Amino acid sequence: MSKDTETLKHDAEVAQFRFALIAPVIQGLYPDASATAYYKRVTASPLTLPDGSTVTYSYKTLEKWKSQYNLGGLDALMPSVRSDKGISRALNDEAIAEIYRMKEDHPRMNATQIYEHLVKESFLPSTVSVDSVQRFIRHNDLKSARDPNLRDRKAYEEDEFGKIWQADTCYLPHITEDGQTRRVYCIMIIDDHSRLLVGGELFYNDNACNFQKVLKDAIATYGIPDKLYVDNGCSYSNEQLSMICVSLGILLLHTKIRDGASKGYVKN
Asked: Residue 140's closest CA among 86, 184, 195, 83?
């Protein structure tokens, strides 16, 4: 396995580990009185990382991951795409988490207002300059005020074939065969850059087994993609698919809950 593949596999495992910790909050399924109470409970004891090592996190770290996920999806949870890459380490982890929270809750607050809040609430000492906060917001694409309820649909595509494949299921009309009327499903995989349909087949069932067959045939024909982008349906969100992607070094990305429209290329 090449170094790049090993790195991608490691990053995918870490991103999925982090997502698993914050998923109950994202999906609103935590049993605790509040999200903060949930974060504090799960970080009360050391956690085991995918490589077997253990680490103790502050609950604010999980709050930061949740904000990062809301802003950038699973990609933002990958360790190789650190939120503070290239930015002065004058900002501690708690301050960074609070910046993400403030921009999520109050997207129109500017850097100066956020800086004043960080100093007032003791997230930062007054010796840290406002420039540090301004640079962090600018470098992490948090500058533009956005309606938090409006999902951005920017026209974007990868720059090479195989960087990302998108998969989805299309519901086709019912057909009658041997006197039995059944729904037909078309499971497809499309390359993000070229728009080439790298995999596709008709089935009577939309399930994990059929999708994995389409994926296997596509990989056998076109090679292993860097990323696979799918929704949260049972065909695409299951332990077996996660294990397949990790073993092949594919980063498995899921749309946000109830946001299947973000995979518009396949539907089109």
From this structure: 83
**pTM of the prediction?**
0.45
C-alpha Rg value of the chain to the nearest Å: 21
Least confident of 93-107, 149-163, 177-191, 212-226: 149-163
- Asked if residue 235 lies in contact with residue 210, where contact means CB atoms within 8 angstroms, the answer is yes
Tell whether the model's pLDDT for residue 56 goes beyond 90: no
Q: Are 98 and 118 in contact (CB under 8 A)?
A: yes
Q: Which helix (H) or strand (E) holds 61?
A: helix 59-72
CB 59 within 8 A of CB 40: yes
* pLDDT tens-digit series, residues 62-89: 998 988 888 777 778 887 544 444 444 6
**Count of helices and strands (H, E) across the chain:** 9, 7
Beta carbons of 188 and 266 less than 8 angstroms apart: yes
Dihedral sign for Cα 121, 125, 129, 135, please. Answer: negative
Q: Which of 55, 20, 59, 63 is nearest to 43 (CA)?
A: 59
- 72 contacts 64 by C-beta, under 8 angstroms: no
